[in-house]
Structures are given as structure tokens and as C-alpha cells.
TrEMBL record:
InterPro entries: Glyco_trans_1 (IPR001296). SUPFAM superfamilies: UDP-Glycosyltransferase/glycogen phosphorylase (SSF53756). It comes from Mucilaginibacter terrigena. One of its GO terms (molecular function) is glycosyltransferase activity. This is Glycosyltransferase. Keywords: Transferase. Residues 185-345 form the Glycosyl transferase family domain. Pfam families: Glycos_transf_1 (PF00534).
Amino acid sequence: MSLPKSILCLIPSLGSGGAERQMIQLIQLLNSEYKIHPTVVTYSNKNKDYPSDIIVTRVKVNEASPIKRFFAILKAVKNAQPEAILSYGDLSNIISVLMQLFYNKAKVVVSERNTSLKYDMFTRLRFNLFRFADAVVVNSNSQTEFIKQHARFLIPKLKTINNFTDISKFTFAPGQINSISKIGIFARYHSQKNTVRFLEAVKMLNDKGYNHVQYYWYGQNYLNADGGPTPLSAYYFECLELQKNLGLANVSLNGFEKNVGDRLNEMDAICLPSLYEGFSNTLSEAICCGKPILTGNVCDNPTFCIDGENGFLFDPFNAGDMASAIEKAVTLNNDEAQRFQAKSRELAENIFSKDKFLSAYVLAMSK
């Protein structure tokens, strides 16, 4: 088996988000370890983007019309004449499979980046289209089990490749914590990420006298280039209104943060209140930095949070349970908080391997 020299990566954007960071890391590793420089095609281009210095060939499809955009992406992929296509995202995966059906020259590797909640019509259609892919990469153990249960015909193509986080980039200095009074949340403003219920939990804590604890939420708010609303920003404005109505002066709702590592190290603990997740980049990076974790007991989250050892798990559908978990964290004494730090870093060192991550993708894309 040999790794194709001509690889095309298809992804909506290189802006904020865990999938984007994983794509960037994989491209960097292909550059450094194999001297391969994939072509990257994006079609949902945002003002906030990753630096282009690591991308040798970047094709931006800027068609506003969904139909024109669809055919423009097909054309861009075909013009690149890749030997292998790696796609992240639902539309990207569908286009990659169509290229396999009609172009039939490239090896197609599609990637599932989230956890499915139900086997609805769209999920059924998507999985059946994956019959024509050469490999289906899944980044979480929970989604692997979902596919095995509902789409057994994909099992021969299935490859579970958990996200990679560079423990040398996201670093940890032990003993830097005295108490937990600054909690960071890194997630886009979306109902999946559960911002509204999180704000309700903070209100409960403030009412109990914990209003000295500061909360910093960073994430894509979907505003336009002028800072105005878009159809996707409605949830963000709902959160702003709720924050105001609840009088949460100790909560800061910020936009996308490019320097995640710097912001992580400013926090005493990290919270991720999502209703469901894949294999979370936020939690991956947080444990590398030795941060105590507060997160929902769903999907792959217990991989990063051992309840009572490096953090606390909660029911993300219950604001009271979320508040209780946060209260446990902010009442830890210094020694306990430092033990939680050390355990998080220990977990990271046992989970993440650059060689294992790269080798798995190389195997998936090899002819």
C-alpha cells in the first residue's frame, strides 16, 4: 500500500471549530512527515480564518446560491484531479461520494465528526451514500457504536480515529492553581452547546453566593462581517438577552478565539455543557493543559473526565445538576484542585499519540 501524493481536503471552512483544527493538524503532519501538501477546497469562507501559510494550494468557492455552490465545488474537486479525497462535513462527504460515483479515479475517505442522536431519514440516506466511499473515518467511540448498531453494512469500511491534540503545544505547569474562580467554555453558540441551560445554572450558583466566580465563553457567534445578525446568530442573541435578564455580570459571552491555548491557560477549569458531543477538541486541549473538567455525562466525555478525580460529570439536561457539579469544583481546596490538574494531564499523556493519529489516516487514504 502507498500513500497518494495528490490529496484533496474538502471542508466547509478553515475558521473556528474542532473539525477545522483537526484538518489543519493533519495537513501539518502530512507536510512535515511525508512532504505532501494537500489541496484544500472550502466553500463556507469566513472572515476569521486560520493562517494560509501552511496551505500551499487553497481553492475558495464563493458562490452564494446553494445550487451554484454545489456545482462549483464539484468542478473544483474534479479540476484538482486528486488521487485521494478526505472530506469533513455532511455536504463535503456527499460531494466526495458523488465524485466517486461519476469521476471514479480518487480514493474517497469520508469523516463523521459528531454523534448522531437518531437514525432519521437524512442519517439513513447519508449512511447509504457512504456505501460508495472507500473508508468511513469516525472520530468518536459513541458514533462508532451508533453506526455499528444502525448501519452494519458500513462496518468493513469503518475506521475509528480519535482526534489528536499535541501535548507539546498545549502545555501544563503544575501547582499554578489556588482555587477555581475562572471557568472557561469554548464552544459555538448553538442549542447543542447548551448555553441557555448553562446560564440558568450560573444564576442558581449566584443566588447561593458564588457570584465571585467568573465565566468566559468563547465561540462562533455567527455575526456577519459588520457585526450584525445572520440567520444562524439568533441563538447568540437569545443568550445575550437571557444573560441580561438574569443579571449575570460575572458571565462574558465572547466571539471566536483563535489563540485557544493562551485563553485555556488563563482559566482555572473548563466547562463543556453540550447536550451531545463527538470526541471533543475542547476537552482534549483542556486536559493537555491540566485543567479540571466540568462536562455532561454523554457520548465520549467520560474519556476526559473521571468523576471526582479530575472533574465532575453532570446531566446536561438538568441545570440544577450542572450547578451542583460547578459548585463542587469551586469549593475544592488547593491540594484537591492541584490533584485534579495532575490527573487531567496524566490522562492526556495516555490518550494522545501523534504517530498513531497520522498512521491511522495514512492507512485510510493509502491505495
